[in-house]
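Quick one: structure for this chain?
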Amino acid sequence: ITLMQDFNEFLSSFTTDMHSLDDFRRKNPQYPPNDAITNITHDAAAMTRKLLDHLTRNNVMQKIPQKVEVNAYKMAMAAWTNAFHPDSGDRCEVILEEYGERFGGDMNLMPTLECYHTVLDAHNKSCSAFFSKRKKEGPKTKGKNTTPAEKALGLLRILNNVHTAGDMFLKPDVKMYATALSVVKNSLLNWECKRQLVFDESDLKLEMELTVEAFGVLDQMKNMLRDEFQDKKAKGGSGEINIERWHFAIQAHADCVMIASRIFIENDINSKYAPAAQLRDLEDFISTHSSTIAGLIETGNPSSGANEAEIQNRLEKAYFCSLTSELILAKELGGFGDLSDALMSAETSEKIFKRMKRRSEDSSRNLQHLFPSPKQEHYDALIQCWGECLQNRYSTAASNLVMKKLNVFPHDKASDILFQMENYISDTKQIDGAISANVVWAWSQSIYWPAIY
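Got it. Here's what it folds into:
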């Protein structure tokens, strides 16, 4: 038991502590691990499994209290939540099955909902290693292994069915829904928010199925929160939900915004699956409950499990994905139809940018993590949107007439955004030179536009 504790602490130092000490890792937890980290975390987690096997095979469990035995199963499962390995979730799930077989039916010792949280956390940890391995092996080995997203959603469906059948102890909670959505997002998108299920038509079909189911999971979570809130109100309670659950709910919304911004399942821009609709849904959710969250923060309610820095990081990425969603789609299709389409897209992105900035400026200091201000990547995204309008392929006689009527040319827009960034960002970090390069590139494209020169 002591050795299992030591291995868990060792694993935590490689993963959790590494993320907390390194700003890049903290902001990009799905950055692919190198082989050394994958192997050493796998070996340490495997040792906890061997120790558990030693305890069970040699009948040692008969000599120790059952609660200690339960703790051994939980520690063996927890080890895989800190292992960057393609099979982390699978190994954790196998231990849960054995634990359930050993104590199933015992109300005091049987696996709890928290054990299923652990399995989902392990699947989440496996995403980057799973897809790194898949990329190295190539499309010929694709399909041999089920993605972490499919496994997470399958586990969530099982719990929903069990709860529907009458088991009140395994009712999925907000954390369960949010973690499942996190696994889906990290399976569909890599650490740079780029699609990674792109090998062939079967991949595209799976991508679409996972996306649709993700939105369904978000709806289930929203309905559950609404019902619980109304139920507490009806019983005379305050209706408040602790801050950790609010944070998980916001995390789930943000992940769905990122998914919607990269995977388009309908052409109708007014669809509820459209990126703009998902972002509005997220913003409305935060605005509706911000006063409640502020009150919980003021009363010292703990926010363990989904800290404020993590929530802010998710929201910043959600805004970045929304700003670039139409540009990314256009590049996948070979460009916008014409200049007017490119201009309309840039104007849409500018509205999102201004809304993000305004919401941040209007928010209270203790809620800055829910109303983040634009960062360098957001300014750069908007610069790229305006720069796209100057691509040579859009320059025609008709488009030059459109360009001539603009009050401000796109390259001037890009320069103005850079100037705003230099004056607005107050931190001491050096501004990324690539952003200035994007502005210079925009100016260089003006030679293709007679309406400008």
